[in-house]
């Protein structure tokens, strides 16, 4: 399927690793001019080289933090008029809410709620004026299956979900859509950090927890980043203009509900 986005411009946050890098690579494969933003210049350079080798597309990079005003400004200087915006950031490591301070909560909100909202605020009107835009927030299934050790993520990402529900319908008539993708467990460095922290807290071996989590999923495995990227790329396509304001699970059937 031709997604109809060759020649479009994309800004992908967290594009140096994991799901973000997979999305950047997939968009580049579709002929999109991709800019990736992340905090570490070294991993950005490595990701850019990998994607160039795989797709033949040159990837522009910017070292920036989604959770800071200066980081967002730097990203928009690099890519001032994105047609496609993918908001994506690592969640905090698991913990006990009794140990979290106000600073912990504010840091989580800055990265997982307020940062994405600011990026939407600064790009959505331009998309509407140009008559095309796709905004995808890479969130987490924790907004539907809240886990006690992920309280910071549960709260911040749920706030973003509510915000998107309130504004998405206002832009779809201009062919601008805003959706949230809710990944379950994927085979990424972020998932390994999560399991590392669980192993440290419980004293159980990493390998035991890793295999247990895979076996607990109906698919009996972790998702592959490439699977996630293909879904995200479709949401960014011209064919997906009738999908907006949605929270779309991609979790191997792990969510047990009917709705």
Give the SSE layout.
Layout: E1 9-13, H1 18-29, E2 33-38, H2 41-55, E3 60-63, H3 69-78, E4 84-87, H4 102-130, E5 133-138, H5 151-167, E6 176-183, H6 189-202, H7 206-216, H8 225-235, E7 247-250
Parallel strand pairs: 1-2, 1-4, 2-3, 4-5, 5-6, 6-7
Helix pairs in contact: 1-2, 1-8, 4-5
Short description:
It is built from eight helices and seven strands; from the N terminus they run βαβαβαβαβαβαααβ.
What does this structure look like?
This protein is α/β, with parallel strands linked by helices and 259 residues long. It folds into 2 domains: 9-184 and 226-242, Rossmann fold (3-Layer(aba) Sandwich), CATH 3.40.50; 189-222, no CATH class. Helices cover 46% and strands 14% of the residues. It contains 8 helices and 7 strands; from the N terminus they run βαβαβαβαβαβαααβ. The protein has helices spanning 18-29, 41-55, 69-78, 102-130, 151-167, 189-202, 206-216, 225-235, and strands at residues 9-13, 33-38, 60-63, 84-87, 133-138, 176-183, 247-250. Helix 1 runs parallel beside helix 2 (41-55) and helix 4 packs parallel to helix 5. The chain is globular. The model has no long low-confidence stretch (mean pLDDT 95).
Helix content: 40-55%
Q: What's the level 1 CATH class of the largest domain?
A: Alpha Beta
Work out the radius of gyration: 18 Å
Low-confidence stretches: none
CATH superfamily of the largest domain: NAD(P)-binding Rossmann-like Domain
Provide the β-strand percentage band: 5-15%
For the largest beta-sheet, the strand count, sense and barrel status come to: 7 strands, parallel
Order of helices and strands: EHEHEHEHEHEHHHE
